[in-house]
Amino acid sequence: MARAVTTQTKVGNTVVAWIIALLIFFPILYTIITSLKTEQEAIAGFSLIPSFTFESYQAVQSQNDYFKPFMNSVILAVGSTILALIVAIPAAWAMAFNPTKRTKDILMWMLSTKMMPAVAVLVPIYLIFLNTGLMDTRFGLTILLMLINLPIVVWMLYTYFREIPGEILEAARMDGATLWGEIWYVLTPMAVPGIASTLLLNIILAWNESFWTIQLTTTNAAPLTAFIASFSSPQGLFWAKLSAASTLAIAPILIMGWFSQKQLVRGLTFGAVK
Amino acid sequence: MATRQTQGIARWMRMPAIVLLLIWMVVPLAMTIYFSFRNYNLLSPGQGSWAGWFNYVYFYTDPAFFQSIWNTLVLVVGVLIITVIGGIAIAMLIDRPMWGQGIVRILVISPFFVMPPVAALIWKNMLMHPGYGVFADIAKFFGAQPVDWFAAYPLFSIILIVAWQWLPFATLILLTSLQSLDGEQMEAAEMDGAGFWSRFWYLTLPHMARAITVVVLIQTIFLLAVYAEILVTTNGGPGYASTNLVFLIYRVARLGFDVGGGAAGGVIAVVLANIVAIFLMRAVGRNLD
Hints:
The complex is a heterodimer. In chain A, 73% of the residues lie in helices and 0% in strands. Chain A is built from 13 helices and no strands. Chain A is globular and about 75 Å long. The model of chain A has no long low-confidence stretch (mean pLDDT 84). Chain B is mostly helical. Chain B has 13 helices and 2 strands. The longest helix of chain B has 33 residues, at 4-36. The two termini of chain B are 20 Å apart. In chain B, 42% of the residues are buried. The chains are: A mainly alpha, B mainly alpha.
């Protein structure tokens, strides 16, 4: 069905598309370039060629203890996602393979909890964290991020599990597989790709969550979102350093994102666009 | 098909997720509603008393309230217009035959993965800074006066940053939809002499209608919650020029220590979000069967 395309058209498409793509990507590219400049170079006017120094990367570690917020981000993102999976996998499995009359309502209700604006519960959550000693702890924030992303995790898993044909389960049952055998030997291998995509997307979402992570942390549990936001104060004039911190903060997620484009569409539209 | 035993186990498997979400939804929301009727300021503890509708009246009569609602609307609609129109254009462009399509795709979707504080600070410092930013360099190159973006056009500047973050999302979803368009139908229309615009208007756009709806609704949910971008760039200012509802509630509750006022604002935010949510649930719900 490939239409005959003249080389001329293809060249034209390519040029226009690359120009637009590079314009959109430019802020990120320029951040990476600036991170390799010295502070003097960073404010010396437009230049795409840095002196390729890594002094900003060293400075960000030695002066700001960069490793700590980075590790906090890793712990919060991975921890909350794994907790959410532990709760969501059984729920999604049950709803996909043993649906009841109310399953659809339950799913819609779960989705509706995601619509609640975070700021609406800022006051109570803040007070709860303040009064229970959860403020500025990784534990409190991990639980919170888990709850925030739980509806998306259940939904994504549900849409993936539903694509596993039920006949296979029935066949396994006929052959005398127990329920747990069914889950472990039949379902799990088929479900792994879906679970992996869900894991990836939710790590991305949790990593970039910038409301609660800024509200509920000060120093101890502050992840990269809160750390970078603190650069908005006057010390933010150290642009090479800010760029180095930013580059490190977005690099892991950027690379993960490139590998999960398809899942992203599916996960973020709750299966409405595939 | 499913035995009574599996049904019983299935109930237990569903339970933890449902109970957790139920607690997460009911408890904080009930507390917000309760606090919204209390006189409660963190700076004067022990003064909690029944306030009636005072907090709502206070919030409603605050001149910043209507400005923040207006700013929220401008922000959401502004970003939607840029991302949907831009998304359609870029998706159609990327969908055409070219070299390096995979890399172009990766470059275009990248901003979506940049965490909001980083995105906002990159734009604020490296691009829009009136002294050293790239935009200022470009202006100087053409002999024009550099613009102090965040002082002169605070809300527009934030719209620009947020639109940059969400353009990839719109593009990616519209591209996915575009790729399921029937090529033969397109070819037939072309052979019948339909021009680019009539093909776009009568074939492409109707085909993408559903995806566009989804993009608009999902983005609206997230755009109503924009916070970090404002915090690190304008801090809501100058005055209240770039304060949206989220930021106003943050100001009242966290910077003003007014628990009651912040809670009343929270209830208003819930009502607003619910209006949007009802439409989204309908659109997504139709897809379940």
